[in-house]
Design brief:
- This protein is of the alpha+beta class.
- It is built from two helices and six strands; from the N terminus they run βββαβαββ.
- The protein has one domain: RutC-like (60s Ribosomal Protein L30, Chain: A, 2-Layer Sandwich).
- It has a six-stranded mixed beta sheet with strand order 1-2-3-6-4-5.
- The two termini are about 20 Å apart.
């Protein structure tokens, strides 16, 4: 197993690795909607927070030579599920081409670090070597 911390990546809110890799699978820790430059400072609204979370996920994936096209599964956590589900989905749908979207679970939760509205974790798969 490989444990990854990405230089210049998102600031960890707890003791964890940005990602753990085993057998070609990359498990990316749930990311928050802050930036490495301003830990704990969040944009307003779930759409902006979703975009910020995805940018943090992209940073972790890029640090491993991967991108969103390698994502096979995502879990999305919303603190205001009924209110924010549609807005989050609109952002999410714009990230992947129709017919090429990863498997996904989305659940409502009672709270997230920094009082964020959304957190997303991913499972990616490295392409098979030629």
């Amino acid at each position: 197993m490989l444990y990854h911390m990405i230089e210049g990546g998102p600031h960890p809110v707890a003791p964890f690795s940005h990602a753990v890799e085993t057998d070609g699978f990359v498990f990316v820790t749930g990311q928050m909607p802050d930036t490495p430059e301003a830990p704990g400072v969040l944009p307003d609204g779930v759409a902006a927070q979703t975009r910020a979370v995805v940018e943090n996920l992209r940073k972790v994936l890029a640090g491993l030579g991967l991108g969103l096209e390698h994502v096979v599964m995502a879990r999305i956590y919303l603190t205001e599920f009924k209110r924010d589900y549609a807005a989050m989905n609109a952002v999410w749908a714009s990230l992947f081409p129709a017919g090429r979207r990863p498997a996904r679970t989305c659940v409502g939760v009672t709270g997230l670090a920094y009082d964020a509205l959304v957190e997303i974790d991913l499972v990616a798969r490295r392409p098979a070597s030629a």
